[in-house]
Amino acid sequence: DGHFLLPILSTFAKEEPPKLEDALAMIRSRALRNHTGRKPPLLSDKAQKSIQYLAFLADYELLFNTSLGMYDFDLARAVARNSQMDPKVYLTSLKRFRGLPDWYSKFEVDMKLKRYESALSHLHKSGLAKESL
């Protein structure tokens, strides 16, 4: 299992433009499918080694922002864990995003990533949803 994982991750990372979301989604799905231990799936040795390999091909900050843009805060934490990012900063941000209603969390992530059209869409959806801050 995973015999061709690294070449596939390499291909995703080196495409123009890079398909980092696809690479991270593959790591996530494999981690969830192969999860057997007590550790969270994305903190398993295999998942972490895959993330480290992908970070060798692409910048950690770009990977972190890509995982944030997927609205997958567990994946973002797994990416940041091996980076030079300050845990006080990224853990605080991730905790804050998790504590917000879904639509508002997505709005905040989109604003951080300067994806204004998507942010506006999530803000609009908030009026349709009955979630409150």
Write the SSE topology.
Elements lengths: L4 H10 L5 H14 L11 H13 L2 H10 L3 H9 L5 H12 L3 H11 L3 H13 L5
Would you kindly provide a written description of the structure presented here, covering whatever features stand out?
The protein is mainly α and 133 residues long. It folds into two domains: 5-85, no CATH class; 100-133. The chain contains eight helices and no strands. It has helices at residues 5-14, 20-33, 45-57, 60-69, 73-81, 87-98, 102-112, 116-128. It is globular. The termini are far apart. The mean pLDDT is 90. It comes from Grammatophora oceanica. It holds the Pfam family A-sol_ELP1. GO terms for molecular function: tRNA binding. This is ELP1 alpha-solenoid domain-containing protein. InterPro entries: A-sol_ELP1, Elp1.
Helix content: 55-70%
Q: Return residue spans where pLDDT drops below 50 for at least 5 consecutive residues.
A: none
Number of helices: 8
State the end-to-end CA separation.
Answer: 44 Å
- Describe the sheet with the most strands: none
What percent of residues are in strands?
Answer: under 5%
Query: What is the 3D shape?
Result: globular
- Total discrete domains: 2
Count all strands and give the number: 0
Main attributes of the structure:
globular, 0% strand, mainly alpha, 133 residues, A-sol_ELP1, single chain, 2 domains, 8 helices
A few lines on this structure:
This protein has about 130 residues and is an all-alpha fold.
